[in-house]
Amino acid sequence: MQSFSWDDIRVFLAVAQTGTISNASMLLSVGIATVSRKIERLEKTFGMPLFLRHQTGYQLTEDGRELLEKAKVVEIAANSFLTEVDIRTKIAGKVRLATTELLANDLIIPNLSILQKNYPDLTLEIITDVQTVNLHRRDADLALRLVRPEQGHVTVRQLGILGFGLYSSNKYYINHQDKIHEGTYDNIHFISWTDEYLQLPSSKWTEKILKGRPLSIATTSLSGQIAAVKAGLGLAILPHFIANTTDFICISQHPELERSLWLVIQADLAHTPRIRKVADFLTDIVSQNQKQLSG
Predict the structure, then answer these.
(1) Is the pLDDT of residue 149 over 80?
(2) 121, 91 in Cβ contact below 8 A?
(3) What is the value of pTM for the model shown?
(4) Which of 25, 59, 81, 209 is deepest in the core (most CB within 10 A)?
(5) Checking DSSP bridges between strand 191-193 and strand 217-219, what pairing results, if any?
C-alpha cells in the first residue's frame, strides 16, 4: 500500500462529519476540488471506496465506517503531536532558579542536557547565593530549597529527601579509627559551618558532639567542607549522595538530620509554560535520583 498524508485523513474525517464535499471544504477552508481530489487519492491508496456518492451528499461505505474510528485515533495522536511541537517552540526565554551550590553542581547541572535538548531556546539562570535570593522580591522565578518557606505568595511542594551521614577520608579514618570507634570523638577533628550557619541541623549536631571544643575547620560552603575531609583534616556531616561519589568512609548514618527538598514557585508564575517545564524537570530528576539523595 502506498503511503498517505495526515492531511488526507483530516479531509476524510471532515467529509464523514459534514456529509458533503462543499461543507467539508468550508470546515477546512480549502477548495472543493482539493477535498474531492484528496478523497479520491485516499480511496486509491487504500484500494477501496470510502464513501457512496449521492445527490444529497457522501455516505460512508461499510469499509469507510470501519476505518472511521481508526482515523479518529490518528487525529487525536496528530493533534497531540502538533500541540507538543507548538508548546516546545513557545518554550523560550529566561528562567531564574535559586538553589544551593550542592544541588546545582551535583544534581541539576549534570542533568541539564535533557532540558537543553528538549527546549533549546530556554535559558536557565542558576543562582546559588541563596542567602540574598528572595522569591517575593522576584529575585528568582522558582527555587529548589532545603527549607520550606512559611509565608509569601508562593506554591510549595515537597519533592524528596536529602540524607546525611558523618564522613571521613580513608587516611584520617586509618589514623584515628580507635578513637572514632570509642564513640566519644575525643581529640577528633571536626569540620562544620561558620557562626552564620549555626541554625543548620548539621551544625547543631556537631556543636553538641564537641561539647564546647572548637571546630578544626569552619567554612561557609559545603564544597569547602568536602575539600577539607578529602584533605584528611577531620570528620564532617555530609550529604550521602555527594560523599558516596568519593572514597569517603561513612562513620555513622544520621536520619535525624534528613532535610526535605522543597520546590517553591512564585504563585503567579506557576502555570507559565517555561516555568512549568523547569519545575517538571526538577521534579523528574529528584524522583530519578531519590535513592542516592536519601542514601
Answers:
(1) no
(2) yes
(3) 0.65
(4) 25
(5) parallel
